[in-house]
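Morning!

This is the sequence you dropped in the shared folder:
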Amino acid sequence: MFLQLPKRKPNRLKHFNYSQNGAYFITICVKDRRNLLGKVVGGDDFSAPYVHLSEYGKVADKYIGRIQGINKYVIMPNHIHMIIVIDNQENGTMWASSPTQSIPQMIKSLKTLISKEIGFSIFQRSYYDHIIRNEKDYERICEYIDTNPMKWREDEYYAENS
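The structure's back. Tokens below.
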């Protein structure tokens, strides 16, 4: 007799091509929201809060920095926010080289590289995405990423010393 598990709700927008030109807001979470990537420090009279990366966070930072198309990102203690822009055109013509990876392929590659160097998988199975609709949406998300360390204690992903 087989155990009947509940079906997982698909996280991606049905019938959407995640390799087409556009801007995407991505959030990748650490398993069980454990604070493995660093800790938020500062916030006193002399400095604004910022994330002091752990060794795992430094590995993540290294690989994120190698991904073409990441316009902005922040590594928080237990999650990563980033904006990925896919633009398959250069100077008005289509590139003749291999096509751009899709967002799911990029995220899978990133998680694999980080986990391989660390020695085990630290991330949740999936990730959250939002297709950025316009300039106002883009600016709002940039502001959110920039201020995320300052608002850590109010963040939905906040976890005290886990």
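Headline: Helices lie at 55-64, 103-118, 135-147.

More detail when I'm at my desk.
O.
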